[in-house]
């Protein structure tokens, strides 16, 4: 019994269309191509509308976090603000420096858009609704994020601008440093579920009725922070720190090219939220609620829930320096991720080889949560131990005795 | 590679599909009889060989590296047409994602004057030699009677089988490769440390 | 209709292009680019063999390819570290001028 119309669940018109095409045209390749085009259109629609919605969401929510209203002029509650932004960017003059590399200059906005779009192809929107059911889905997502750093380098290089190149170099150094903990953190759900197939991992979570976030809290933390750094969002947005390096690698890009970079950052945030939702938080399943609500609505809801978390991080935390970011990745995240991989592999081995029941999953969850706590504490203390030995700034109240002024006498009337 | 998932177990609802995976339930992988695969193979082969040629023809070294990256991606596409999806993704991840970035960093650490992609003066004999080597290999390849077998779906699960092969017959090369990577990392770091100029 | 011969021809052509690039570049990084192309052509051949040849364990071709990718990554790292180091000492990276070991 479904809560909404059957058509929202089954997409019956499309199935009928495919069968009609197969009957009339007779060739299965045509049906394949038509279905691929329709599916791609659906994904592109979601991504496009998502980018528009994200612009509004970011500015309003960050405004509320910073104790101000966001944009509220353009439409009711500022809902037409994305449209205004798009119009502004489209009508801007597109400048290209004369000394820049001709064809190479126009390439990065397109090149950085492609991996962002391709990420959405492997998500499982419903039990049978996946655009590209790859057997190596998780590895495919990691390969896409390493292609993004290449596009940023081309952007910085072809601008023929020292500061753009410097910004691009910093971004690439940060991106490749954070790729390693990202890979290791995403290895943990793969070990537990036994497959790199993303619908398979979601199925595992539905079959065992537990979200992988409860079993593996440490990889969630590691992946969330690494993905924030890969996305170049605060607290890791040294790429586009407006106060630091003019505008980083997209200094020379104006108009819609910059608009594409900006849109790609938002779309990538949606993609990362989608990955967290699929791999760690159950994807389209919500403990049986997906019988009543269409699963893809649940999935989109989860994506926006984690995207709200990313916006919250952006509004709350200050920007980290580039050497702080590197130290964080190399000295804390990578050892944590390595310890985590060994731990999870041992636990899963015990679970599978000794053929213990499902109660062992609760034991794994408890052990992992306790160890995550202890390890994080340990690493924080190790990394910040040198700061406790710095001379403390003298606080006026309580540490330094202020010489007391003479008591004020009666106010002389004069 | 496009193995479908079959009917859902729970509920009697037939959920829709975003894209039809034809005959997926029968375990069909990438079949080299399909028109699409043949067209893709030729397009990707032309792309790869064209980019490799452009690597030698462009004048700026950074453009040459970018064409090299394009040829890496082309080779990854060729792997996919040959049912090697895991190796294709590993190729993109490592070659186009890591080795290329390494080459770009190394180029940017060298002077601008040395950044030309020029060839040495004796290129003609080299091209003849390279052409001869290629011709010999093609001749041997076409003449040999290979013991081919035309299975339709040879590798239903490449990643799992590669994992099993790495741990059962090839565990020694696997461990040696990890030691090699550590040695390479340590060696590279020692080579580029600033203090090495005094030695 | 793709068969093993197609793959071998593409691999051989890629190998000869890589050989030409490796032998005829003046820049050390250019030589490395040729070497990487040759390794890629070998990998392509191995994947073709894994797909088409009758063998008791056909996944071996792909396993060898993974090993070759690993070794190529390690070699590229060391070669580029060498190039940067040589530039620091000799102020040039032109392979024609790095010929201290004359006859």
Radius of gyration of CA atoms of chain A, rounded to a whole number:
26 Å
Number of helices of chain B: 6
Major beta sheet summary of chain A: 2 strands, antiparallel
What's the domain count of chain B? 2
- Mean pLDDT across the residues of chain A is 85
Radius of gyration of chain B: 23 Å
Globally, the shape of chain A reads: globular
Oligomer: heterotrimer
The CATH topology of the largest domain in chain B is given as Four Helix Bundle (Hemerythrin (Met), subunit A)
Shape of chain B: globular
**Helix and strand element order of chain A:** HHHHHEEHHHHHHHHHH
Helix and strand composition category of chain B: mainly alpha
According to CATH, the homologous superfamily of the largest domain in chain B is: NADH-ubiquinone/plastoquinone oxidoreductase chain 6, subunit NuoJ
Stretches of chain A where pLDDT is under 50 for at least 5 consecutive residues are none
Largest interface: B-C, 89 and 75 residues
The percent range for helix content of chain B is 55-70%
H/E topology pattern of chain B: HHHHHH
Which runs of chain B of at least 5 residues are low in confidence (pLDDT < 50)?
1-16, 22-27
Average pLDDT over all residues of chain B: 81
Cα distance, first to last residue of chain B?
A: 54 Å
């Amino acid at each position: 019994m479904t809560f909404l119309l059957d058509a929202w669940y089954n997409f019956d018109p499309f199935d009928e269309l495919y069968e009609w095409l197969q009957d009339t045209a007779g060739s299965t390749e045509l049906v394949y191509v038509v279905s691929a085009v329709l599916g791609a259109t659906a994904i592109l629609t979601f991504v496009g509308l998502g980018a528009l919605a994200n612009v509004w969401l970011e500015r309003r929510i960050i405004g509320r976090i910073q104790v101000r209203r966001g944009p509220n002029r353009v439409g009711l509650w500022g809902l037409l603000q994305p449209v205004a932004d798009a119009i502004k960017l489209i009508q801007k003059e597109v400048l290209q420096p004369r000394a820049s590399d001709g064809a190479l200059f126009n390439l990065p906005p397109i090149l950085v858009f492609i991996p962002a779009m391709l990420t959405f192809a492997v998500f499982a929107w419903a039990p049978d609704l996946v655009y590209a059911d790859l057997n190596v889905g998780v590895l495919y997502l990691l390969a896409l994020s390493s292609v993004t750093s290449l596009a940023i380098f081309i952007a910085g290089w072809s601008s023929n601008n020292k500061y753009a190149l410097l910004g691009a170099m910093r971004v690439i150094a940060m991106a490749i440093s954070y790729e390693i903990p990202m890979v290791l953190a995403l290895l943990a759900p793969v070990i537990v579920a036994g497959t790199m197939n993303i619908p398979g991992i979601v199925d595992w979570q539905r079959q065992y009725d537990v979200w992988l976030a409860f079993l593996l809290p440490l990889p969630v933390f590691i992946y969330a922070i690494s993905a924030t750094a890969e996305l170049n969002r605060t607290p890791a947005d040294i790429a586009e720190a407006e106060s630091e390096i003019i505008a980083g690698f997209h200094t020379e890009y104006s108009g819609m090219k910059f608009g594409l970079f900006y849109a790609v950052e938002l779309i990538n945030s949606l993609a990362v939220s989608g990955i967290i939702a699929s791999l760690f938080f159950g994807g389209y399943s919500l403990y049986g609620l997906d019988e009543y609500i269409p699963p893809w609505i649940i999935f989109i809801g989860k994506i926006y829930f984690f995207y709200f978390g990313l916006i919250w991080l952006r509004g709350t935390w200050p920007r980290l320096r580039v050497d702080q970011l590197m130290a964080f990745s190399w000295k804390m995240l990578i050892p944590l991720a390595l310890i985590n991989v060994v731990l999870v592999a041992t636990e899963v081995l015990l679970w599978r080889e000794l053929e213990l029941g499902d109660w062992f999953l609760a034991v794994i969850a408890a052990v992992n949560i306790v160890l995550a706590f202890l390890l994080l504490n340990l690493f924080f203390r190790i990394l910040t131990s040198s700061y406790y030995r710095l001379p403390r700034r003298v606080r006026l109240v309580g540490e330094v005795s202020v010489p007391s002024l003479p008591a004020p006498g009666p106010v002389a009337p004069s | 590679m496009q193995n479908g998932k079959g009917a859902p177990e729970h509920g009697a609802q037939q959920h829709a599909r975003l894209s039809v995976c034809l005959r997926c339930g029968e375990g069909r992988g990438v079949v080299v009889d399909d028109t699409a695969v043949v067209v893709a193979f030729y397009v990707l082969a032309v792309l790869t060989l064209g980019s490799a040629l452009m690597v030698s023809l462009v004048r700026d070294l950074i453009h040459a590296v970018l064409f090299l990256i394009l040829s890496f991606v082309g080779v990854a596409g060729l792997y996919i047409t040959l049912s090697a999806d895991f190796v294709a993704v590993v190729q993109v991840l490592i070659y186009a994602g890591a080795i290329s970035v390494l080459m770009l960093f190394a180029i940017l650490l060298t002077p601008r004057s040395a950044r030309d992609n020029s060839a040495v003066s004796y290129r003609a004999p080299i091209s003849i030699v390279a052409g001869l080597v290629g011709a010999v290999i093609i001749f041997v390849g076409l003449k040999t009677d290979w013991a081919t077998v035309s299975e339709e779906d040879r590798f239903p699960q490449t990643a799992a089988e590669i994992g099993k092969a790495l741990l059962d017959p090839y565990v020694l090369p696997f461990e040696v490769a990890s030691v090699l990577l550590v040695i390479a990392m340590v060696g590279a770091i020692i080579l580029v440390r600033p203090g090495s100029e005094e030695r | 209709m793709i068969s093993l011969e197609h793959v071998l021809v593409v691999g051989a052509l890629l190998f000869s292009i890589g050989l030409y690039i490796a032998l005829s570049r003046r820049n050390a990084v250019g030589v490395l680019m040729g070497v990487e192309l040759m390794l890629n052509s070998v990998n392509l051949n191995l994947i073709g063999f894994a797909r088409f040849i009758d063998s008791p364990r056909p996944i071996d071709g792909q396993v060898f390819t993974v090993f070759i990718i690993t070794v190529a990554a390690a070699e590229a790292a060391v070669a580029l570290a060498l190039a940067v180091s040589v530039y620091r000492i000799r102020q040039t990276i032109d392979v024609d001028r790095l010929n201290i070991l004359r006859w």
